[in-house]
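Notes from hallway chat w/ T.B., transcribed later so I don't forget. T.B. wanted the structure written out for a chain they're using in a teaching module, and asked if we could keep both sequence and C-alpha cells in one place. Agreed to drop them here.
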Amino acid sequence: MITNIREVRRARGLTLEQVARACTPPTTAQQIGRLEVGTRAVSVAWLNRIAAALGVTAADLVTLPDRVDLPVAAVLDARGAHAPTRAETILPFKPAPGAVAVRVAAGIGDYRAGDILWCEVLAPDGFARAMNRDVLVPRPAGRFAFARLLDRDDARLHLLPPAPGARQQIVANPPWLARVVRLVRAL
C-alpha cells in the first residue's frame, strides 16, 4: 500500500511533532516518520489515528486507483508564480456525509452568480464552530436565512445577511445550521 501521509501533512503545513501530538493517543515524531517513509507497516488503526490528527479521511492517506490527485504545477505567493520546491499533490475535496450545497443564482456580498457553496451541517451543540462564518439556517415554512453568524445566546442566533445595508436577523431554536466550508467558483 502506498501512503500519502507525508504529502498530506506537508500540505497542511504540519511538522512530524505536531501530527504526533495530535494523534489520540499521542505518539512520537519518529513513529510518524517511520510510517510516512514505509519503514514501518501502516495498519488501518494507524491510518485512522493519523487521518484524524490531519483532519482528513483514512482514504485520503492512501493512493487509490479510482482517485485522481492534482499535481501542483506552481505556487503563487507575493513573489509571483514559481515552481514548487518539491513534488506536491492536492487531494480532491470530498464533502462529508450529510453535507449540503448552496447554489448562488445572483451575486450577493462576496459571492458571484454561479458559485457553489459546500456546507457542513451542524447540530445545535456544534453551532460554536460556525461563529463568524457564513451559514445557512432553516426557518419556518421551508424558508432559509443565509448570513454571517455573529452571536449565539441561549437558543437564538444573531445573523448578518451579506447584502449591503442588511439588518441583523435573529433566528430562534433552529434544529441545525450549515456552515460554509468550501467555495467552488468557475473561472
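Follow-up for T.B.: The mean pLDDT is 88. Might be a good example for the class.
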